Amino acid sequence: MGILIGVGLSAAVGFRVFTPLLITSIAEKADMVQLAEGFSWIGTTPALVAFLVATILEVTSSYIPFVDQMMKVLATPVAIVAGILLTASFIGEMEPLLTWSISIIAGGSTATVSQLTTTSIKGASTITTGGMGNFVVSIAEGIVAIAMSILSILLPFLALFFVLVLFIAFIFMAKGIRKTFPRRKTA
User: What is the C-alpha to C-alpha distance for residues 20 and 79, in angstroms, rounded to an integer?
Assistant: First the structure.
């Protein structure tokens, strides 16, 4: 169950990096979740404040045209680390090698796919609307990040369904990009 929660939160990280961390911190403080040994710091007051400030800054920057796209690209490595961290924080009672392997493979890859998908959508919005449509995309990202984070904690099996939909969307987007920009044939 912990792996499902972690992977669901990792998917949410691609929409907003710090929102899932903030919601996890709140849930831990409210005793709604039990984090693995060594990760209880996520539920401390300093961490909660840090995640809240980071979330506010991330959300605020997402409503400034062109700054939002730049921040989305810069957020990619942070999202991957956050996805790995969130997945590891819910895996208890396993050997460290297995915990980190699962966290890197499942959490890291899910966060990567989610982040790349949202970055592509934001990029397409920037190109087609000159950045003016990004406001709507940013609102949708925030809603999905909050809903997915809460869903992952309360109903992890539904979160798994969302992750599968996300991977399918990523595959279709990748195929669309491949058709738009076909490979050049070498002489």
Answer: 10
